[in-house]
Design goal:
2 copies of one chain form a homodimer. The first copy, chain A, has 225 residues and is of the alpha/beta class. Helix content of chain A is 40%, strand content 22%. At the A-B interface, α7 of A face loops of B. The first copy, chain A, binds a DNA duplex (30 and 30 nucleotides) through α6 and α8.
Chain lengths: 225, 225
DNA sequence: CGCAAGGTTAATTGATTATTAACGCCTGCA
DNA sequence: TGCAGGCGTTAATAATCAATTAACCTTGCG
């Protein structure tokens, strides 16, 4: 197999050099671009396996670039990871449903980055996605802050509601039985009635929209973008 | 809390020892059995928290064992994970609906297995699912999502219909008697009239196409791709 | 033809979930 | 301390949808 190609897009030359150097040392073929437009060009020219995209860039930012990348059939399946400054306001990101596969916070130690990159390439899916959980639906769940963004609008849900949402959304599409839900959100030894779950589901539907939560009668609930 | 108990059932002594050793080193209380029958005994004796079940075994295979385990009230809630050889033909896996909670492919690195096991015990829900999706001539059955795709189009069937389909499709071509069907989909102690099955079959025919369900008069029904 | 086995349809029953309101229980705060 | 408000829970009721049945129809075959 030929070397795997990585495209690195960031407006800071230092970052490009530093990360690029480390990736190359690991045997990857690295392309770098200082802005979205150039990045797009290179992506189309080389169809990289992975694209690391800084979110904040002049001229054409990460979000915009990502969307355009996703519009290119040949890049549909390319893994795209956003590089974000730590503590960046996720509500900025939440609004855009650009289609990234993972978020990586800067600054990041080269070794850590390398292993994230390798994991992404190996699995095709974000490993332990560091940050906001995208759900291809304008809904972002930030466990760290106990906050949910719906189309960029911040909602702060009560604990149970949040945890229920987080559980369902952890595997969109998967049906969780009431049993599943109880043992995960409430714990194995707590006894609460079945209706309790319904009520919380209802509150979530109220706040996030009915369509996201599907009832499978006699089976359970699932979250669908 | 006392140590969590894990029952490991596999006919290969090497595997038993290897996995068993690793699980014990992690602090679990491990029981091992070389076949389904022994496994069942041990399960009843110790009510483990998790059962790892090899699918292919002489004497009493994983599927069969699983079904029997599920029939035992005290083991109703025990987590059962199947160990399957990679690339095993899932169409062979009638245990599709035998009631397994997760599928784990062998060979698997001990470290990976351990983390899967821990996740299962912690969450009671499989993390990244290797649950088989049955694909037969344009019909895909996804038990995890409780959804069926017909030529890519998503259909969500009611519980009984879904289970009936899953049963028939678990062994395409094989005839299931009405008795078979009743005991698998409805359970041994439920009494329903004869026409009930017909009606469900009819609904399936309506939704998936007449041709898939063949009636063998005086015998039963079968599913044919 | 007449029976046996299934097929069809629509109505009925039954189970499960949705909804709403109410009740404690905390927490924060004057 | 006592009040206000948010949260989690439950109970009661309504609404929804699946499951079942009953009644009748069709088909194949002796």
């Amino acid at each position: 197999m030929s070397r795997q190609k990585i495209l690195l897009v960031d407006d800071e030359p230092d970052i490009l050099e530093m990360i690029g150097f480390n990736l190359e040392r690991e045997g990857f073929e690295v392309f770098t671009a200082p802005n979205g437009r150039k990045g797009l060009e290179l992506a189309r020219a080389h169809t990289p396996d992975l694209i690391l995209l800084d979110v904040m860039m002049p001229e054409m930012d990460g979000m915009e670039t990502c969307r355009e990348l996703r519009d290119d059939a040949r890049l549909k399946n390319t893994i795209i990871a956003f590089l974000t400054a730590r503590n960046e306001d996720y509500s900025q990101i939440a609004g855009f449903d650009a289609g990234a596969d993972d978020y990586i916070s800067k600054p990041i130690k080269p070794r850590v980055l390398i292993s994230r990159v390798k994991a992404l390439l190996r699995r095709g899916v974000p490993a332990a996605s560091e940050m906001p959980k995208r759900d291809l639906s304008g809904i972002v769940i930030d466990k760290e802050r106990y906050v949910v963004y719906k189309e960029g609008v911040e909602l702060s849900l009560p604990k149970k509601e949040f945890e229920l949402l987080a559980l369902l959304a952890s595997q969109p599409g998967r049906v969780f039985t009431r049993e599943n839900i109880l043992s995960n959100v409430w714990g194995n030894d707590v006894i609460v009635g079945d209706r309790t779950i319904d009520v919380h589901i209802r509150k979530l539907r109220e706040k996030l929209g009915d369509d996201f939560f599907k009832t499978i009668k006699g089976v359970g609930y699932k979250f669908e973008p």
